[in-house]
């Protein structure tokens, strides 16, 4: 009983910080009925939702592949300093987003960027689907390194030695031992990267991505602020509810995979 009372302030805070906004969002999304939700699945709103899903999927897959190879190189490295440096940098870069990240890339590869001028890149290359995907990979790859590195550490050297003693090649080892063990962690990392890219707003907004690539987060901001039209606040809340449902689906997939992958680390 005393333990429950000790957690009461936390429960009250969570209820106020998350419960009230969630209730307001659901109430607004269903006011005056299902019209707002139906509107989010039509026209420009549906296009923005599909663009967000497509962009998040591309970033998740590419980030998972690049992050896994980088993490494998770091984990198998004999240099402790290199390992600590990469993991520390990944912890910082995984949380490096928003306006600073947008400014970094615009100043580097924008229309008047330093590198784009040297390479002679065509104008607007950064402000496209693949340009925004490249920007998102800047924090997606380090995040994948942090997620998959513990799973790679869980691959015990005895397993490789046992496979070699039984005549297995490196390809056979990874096919029958390494990849099956890493699969939950890899899939969990992909899902986590998808959710991270799907919810990103500040970076795309600072880059002005809404003019060339409509995203659901930018549509929500425009609807709630009334930048384009007034009276569409409830449509923005309905779009937010769509995002919450997608995020809930992502977490429903991620948590079991993460729980399964941690078994190999014990």
From TrEMBL:
Main location: membrane
Location of the ABC transmembrane type-1 domain: 49-254
Membrane-related topology note: Multi-pass membrane protein
Pfam families assigned: BPD_transp_1 (PF00528)
Subcellular location: Cell membrane
Keywords: Cell membrane, Membrane, Transmembrane, Transmembrane helix, Transport
Parts of the chain that traverse the membrane: 52-74, 86-107, 127-152, 181-204, 235-257
Family listed: Belongs to the binding-protein-dependent transport system permease family. CysTW subfamily.
UniProt-recorded name of the protein: Putative spermidine/putrescine transport system permease protein
Annotated source species: Nonomuraea dietziae
């Amino acid at each position: 009983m005393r333990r429950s009372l000790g957690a009461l302030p936390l429960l009250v805070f969570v209820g106020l910080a998350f419960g009230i906004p969630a209730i307001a969002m659901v109430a607004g999304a269903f006011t005056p009925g299902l019209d707002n939700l139906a509107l989010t699945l039509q026209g420009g709103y549906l296009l923005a939702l599909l663009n967000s899903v497509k962009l998040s999927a591309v970033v998740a897959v590419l980030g998972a592949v690049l992050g896994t190879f980088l993490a494998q190189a770091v984990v198998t490295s004999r240099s402790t300093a290199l390992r600590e440096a990469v993991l520390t940098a990944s912890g910082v870069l995984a949380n490096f987003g928003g306006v600073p990240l947008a400014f970094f890339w615009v100043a580097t590869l924008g229309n008047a960027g330093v590198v784009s001028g040297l390479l002679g890149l065509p104008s607007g290359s950064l402000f496209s689907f693949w340009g925004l995907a490249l920007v998102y990979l800047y924090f997606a790859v380090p995040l994948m390194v942090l997620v998959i590195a513990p799973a790679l550490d869980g691959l015990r050297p005895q397993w490789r030695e046992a496979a070699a003693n039984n005549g297995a090649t490196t390809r056979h080892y990874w096919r029958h031992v390494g990849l099956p063990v890493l699969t939950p962690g890899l899939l969990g990392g992909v899902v986590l990267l998808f959710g991270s890219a799907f919810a990103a707003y500040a970076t795309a907004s600072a880059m002005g991505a809404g003019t060339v690539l409509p995203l659901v987060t930018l549509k929500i901001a425009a609807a709630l602020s009334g930048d384009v039209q007034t009276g569409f606040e409830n449509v923005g809340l309905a779009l937010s509810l769509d995002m919450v449902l997608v995020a809930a689906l992502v977490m429903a997939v991620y948590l079991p995979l993460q729980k399964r992958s941690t078994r190999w680390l014990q």
